[in-house]
């Protein structure tokens, strides 16, 4: 397998965690976002949206991290990254989607660049936007995790799932932007538990070959 990745991309970080959890070897194909390599024709041939990550497996290209993690789950079921029970799977997917579909898009590089340029924001203005949407998103996520009574060491009891693959990169990013995470004790406890595991440690940005 080949993973088109950028060390700091949280969506790529999700995929790296999932691949490591499943013990799947892959070749990293770095795509530099600051250098704009994701917008070059070559890469648009891989991912028509010009986003990382993308996964190549058996001559086929896959995009969208949630779909790709489900693909890995179906093709390499062990160890599972989804619960056995249908209702529990729906809960895990909900947690993953809160992060991947609602929190992350508002704080993505292209969103931040667009608001900076179009509305004349300085770095502090962009950071305020970032922190606002992190606070909104994590507040709801924390409440869901608590209400569900499903969270344990990880988002779903003591089983690592795709929810954790999404949670850790988002918290990692929030720390980078100095967001206050003290109102989210469940989220931060899950983050700390995950970051003790080799799969998460190996997948983190600073450990990637393209890290600068
Ligand atoms: N929903 C996509 C999100 C992919 C995405 O937005 N990737 C970011 C990096 S985390 C990206 O390539 N950004 C480039 C840009 O914003 O210009 C997924 O889950 O794969």
SSE string: EHEHEEHHHHHHH
Outline the low-pLDDT stretches: none
CATH class of the largest domain: Mainly Alpha
* Average residue pLDDT: 97
CATH architecture of the largest domain: Up-down Bundle
The ligands bound in this entry are: glutathione
> What does the radius of gyration come to?
17 Å
Number of distinct beta strands = 4
Strand order of the largest sheet: 2-1-3-4
Structural class: alpha+beta
Cα separation of the termini: 24 Å
Query: The biggest beta sheet, please?
Result: 4 strands, mixed
Strand content: 5-15%
Relative helix content:
40-55%
| Count of DSSP H/I helices | 9
The domain count comes to: 2
Query: What would the CATH topology of the largest domain be?
Result: Glutathione S-transferase Yfyf (Class Pi), Chain A, domain 2
Q: Which outline best applies? A: globular
Summarize the structure.
With 212 residues, the protein is of the alpha+beta class.
Structure description:
The chain has 212 residues and is an alpha+beta fold. It folds into two domains: 2-79 and 202-207, Glutaredoxin; 86-199, Glutathione S-transferase Yfyf (Class Pi), Chain A, domain 2. It contains nine helices and four strands; from the N terminus they run E-H-E-H-E-E-H-H-H-H-H-H-H. The protein has helices spanning 10-21, 41-44, 65-75, 86-106, 109-118, 123-148, 162-176, 185-194, 198-203, and strands at 2-5, 27-30, 54-57, 60-63. Strands 2-1-3-4 form a four-stranded mixed beta sheet, covered by helices on one side. Strand 3 (54-57) and strand 4 (60-63) form a beta hairpin. The model has no long low-confidence stretch (mean pLDDT 97). Bound molecules: glutathione. Residues 9-11, 33, 38, 51-53, 64-66, 100, 108-110 line the site of glutathione.
């Amino acid at each position: 397998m080949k993973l088109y990745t950028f060390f700091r991309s949280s969506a790529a970080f999700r995929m790296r965690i999932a691949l490591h959890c499943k013990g799947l070897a892959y070749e990293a194909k770095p795509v530099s976002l600051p250098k704009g390599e994701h917008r070059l024709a070559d890469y648009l041939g891989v991912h028509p949206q010009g986003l990382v990550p993308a996964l190549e497996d058996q001559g086929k290209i896959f995009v969208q991290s949630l779909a790709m993690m489900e693909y890995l789950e179906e093709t390499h079921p062990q160890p599972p990254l989804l619960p056995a029970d249908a209702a529990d799977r729906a809960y895990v997917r909900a947690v993953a989607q809160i992060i991947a579909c609602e929190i992350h898009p508002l704080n993505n590089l292209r969103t931040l660049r667009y608001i900076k340029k179009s509305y004349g924001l300085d770095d502090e203005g962009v950071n305020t936007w970032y922190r606002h949407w992190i606070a909104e998103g994590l507040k709801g996520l924390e409440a869901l995790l608590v209400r569900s009574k499903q969270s344990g060491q990880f988002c779903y009891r003591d089983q690592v799932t795709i929810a954790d693959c999404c949670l850790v990169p988002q918290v990692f990013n929030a720390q980078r932007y100095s967001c206050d995470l003290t109102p989210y004790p469940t989220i931060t406890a899950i983050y700390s538990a995950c970051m003790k595991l080799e799969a998460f440690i190996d997948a983190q940005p600073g450990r990637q070959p393209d890290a600068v």
